[in-house]
Write a structure and sequence with these properties.
homotrimer, mainly alpha, 16 helices, 0% strand
């Protein structure tokens, strides 16, 4: 597809070790829907840059471990080879691996927990993909979120896993004036634009965001463009609504919107003006759903993750043209019907 | 179908503007499963009556705006024309439009929020209807509830949307004696009987309830009868269980039961004694699920909406006669099987 | 199948009353996937033993009432006869019947509540089984959990049902040192091994657990073996993670794991080394999900029930060999497409 990576692709196909590395890099790239090894490599570069800058190198190491473990799990489960080779068994694991050290602590037991979680993310991917294939819709990063939410919540009950980086439980409160009135400078807007992208891998770093956009450019100009469009629209709408400025500046309100914009605008639909308008609307709904999850998860201390992207994108992929819904009329064959109606139904 | 509306139907079919109005009125009627313009018009009359009486005219205006926006959204998405003409793209939007001004405040931003929510309800309808068509079951008002719950929760995070009419978060507490021991007079029972109906559109008004029953009568005598049966059974059972008398009197415990009764008793099954018994049981379960949602939503300040109706009615529409469930026996083709079993499965 | 029960089977087939008893006993047995009347009878014996020992005979009586009510409901709904005869309409009801008197109180109204809940569990079984049949996956005990969670939560709103045995709502807190450091003696391990089994029917009793294992042995040696394997692995892993020792000793962390082990290791997959490894992994995930539900349900006072088993087993049954997921590529026919694309799609 992309000519830049052609020499590598030729080599990777012939060598078992390189092929394994290639599969893993593509897994990293699939977090933003790009089965491209160079994109995936640049994602990892960006993750290491941001993790080192924040003195949280375990996040980057976790990402690599999670990526490899989930990919190997996919191999051991006799999964479909073609889907394997383009990285579909790795993109949830790399996120699990970045998320656990971000929110949890705990030495050796944490790493065992991470390995189990990354392997479980592949099981979850196969399960969720099977269910949603019924409606021609992909699993997206729901398997990551499922594993992330389940394992983070469970950690409260385990002494050997620490949950100190999860916020304390509280009832949802309406946001106060003070959380909203910060100075909106050019540098704030610039940082937010790219941190909305970097936070997809749980990294809060402008340079990482720029690296990620370049990584997208390598694979697809449309993807890079829609990433920035999604980021800008999310930023504008959430500033207009008046959300927490610290969270906005850290890219938390935009990460899901960036993914929704790439998914709807450049991956699952062919770019067009209609699709552009549909995508913009999808981004607005993603911003709202991020607010939803922040409130809904307040009492149980969970982060929203990429959940808003998943729910919004499913919502916008499921409607079909000329779809005929079930009518408000008699449904035959229900258990409430009498024996006679059985005869009628059979006869 | 109904001869009363025949002259109108003939005119409406020939004029673009009248056809658009007709489609919207039927959308209003479909909240209680009646694709009938006069029913829908009377619903709107009842809403305005109740909203004006309570000095909350924005609820009625919101209902009309939500109705029109969601219908237009359906048109722009190239939806199925026949389903459009009987109002299936409007019944969630009209509820979104009545609900937002009931629970939120906020000037211009609220109305933008409402327009986005109403448009999103049509996307959600197409998505939910697509999923549940798999089992021959309709979307009901789940799209409204989804949008309502999502947008209300999100509003906590937005300074420009006020959530002052949502109750404060709290843990579920067992109801105290004081909340239950009110005087049960004839006027209490009479008001409750009809407020159970009026609250479907978030209106707390006896006259509105009577107008709604008349609106049902215009389209279907069975629907009107089952609405009152559902209301009476809900009232009786919840008084016997000992629930909050203020909530009962305001029609909150009955609104979902009325919808369940109409749906199971007169719309999706053909009326019969078996179906009547099944419907009564469905109403009892609806009452319980209302209690469930009141408790479950206590920590996150959400109203139950018509959620109890949706969950109960799905539960009672999904069982089929002579259905053969998956047995407790070996399932072939699982990812846990070895390569040999692949051979066996394929061979 | 099992020669021990052959004489009984011959008699039961010829007499209406005995056949009804046989159907009910098999319903009891199906809680652990055994359509075997002797297994079911021994389960009931174990329940009565444990309930009498704990002065909570109502739990055992409730179990029998729930079993009979749900089975009769299945008959009245013209359910599939073969599934009926092997007990598939009773296994959720027997659990509902044991659970309600465990967590609720309230005289006559409680028993009416229990009868409604048990009947609703059969409706819920037919509904859930219909939905999950789409992916070739059984309903498991999800219908029980659904009814249990719904009716327990609702009880907070009803004066005539007491919820004094449900814990008070609280935000999830990280477990303290004190809850973990108990003395782990041989007798603690022995008791836990069998209470993990007895708690499946909400009984906290070592002898009951032993009776349950014998009951499994009657029907399937593999089932009995995997029950003990699941129990041991759950115990070991949760002690290593450092969970609440009182809960572990009462069998709460193992009950779902025992069911997962029987289901994956001996029922739905044919025993093999691959399946054994897969099952062990499934048990680990079950233990984590139990922790998840304990945290998630803390604010709303709910018990986890057999929910962790259901979610983990679904997760491990849904992945298929050589499954081809939806690719990250254009999806045709979406509502966002223009009219032209309609033409293209149709042409």
């Amino acid at each position: 597809m992309t000519t830049i990576t052609k020499p590598w692709d030729d080599v990777a196909d012939k060598n078992v070790v390189l092929r394994f590395i290639d599969t893993n890099l593509k897994g990293s790239g699939q977090v933003m829907f790009q089965g491209n090894a160079l994109t995936g490599l640049l994602f990892l570069v960006g993750i290491f840059w941001g993790a080192i800058a924040a003195y949280t190198i375990t996040v980057a190491i976790g990402a690599v471990v999670g990526l490899v473990v989930s990919t190997v799990t996919g191999m051991m489960l006799h999964s479909d080879d073609d889907s394997m080779r383009i990285g579909l068994y790795g993109y949830n694991g790399v996120l699990v691996g970045a998320a656990f050290p971000t929110f949890l602590a705990g030495g050796v037991m944490l790493w065992i927990y991470l390995v189990v979680g990354a392997a479980a993310s592949t099981i979850a991917f196969l399960a969720v993909a099977n269910v949603f294939k019924t409606w021609g819709v992909p699993a997206l990063t729901f398997p990551f979120n499922l594993v992330n939410w389940f394992f983070l919540l469970a950690a409260f009950q385990f002494l050997r896993i620490e949950t100190s980086d999860l916020s304390a439980g509280q009832f949802p409160q309406h946001i106060g004036d003070a959380s909203v009135h910060a100075e909106i400078t050019f540098s704030f807007l610039w940082d937010t634009l790219f941190r909305n992208v970097s936070q997809i891998f749980l990294i809060n770093n402008t340079v990482t965001g720029i690296i990620f956009v370049i990584a997208l450019l390598v694979a697809s100009r449309w993807a890079a463009l829609f990433a920035l469009i999604g980021s800008a629209i999310a930023m504008g709408s959430v500033l207009a609504l008046g959300a927490n400025t610290v969270d906005i500046g850290n890219g938390l309100y935009g990460l899901s919107s960036v993914l929704t914009a790439i998914a709807l605008g450049s991956v699952f639909y062919n770019p067009s003006w209609r699709v552009f308008v549909y995508t913009v609307f999808g981004v607005l709904v993603t911003v709202v759903i991020h607010g939803t999850l922040v409130s809904a998860f307040a009492p149980i201390s969970l982060p929203a993750g990429t959940g808003p992207f998943v729910f919004a994108t499913w919502l916008f992929l499921l409607p079909k043209k000329k779809f005929v819904p079930i009518q408000h009329d008699t449904i035959e064959g229900g258990a409430a019907e009498g024996k006679d109606s059985i005869a009628k139904a059979n006869g």
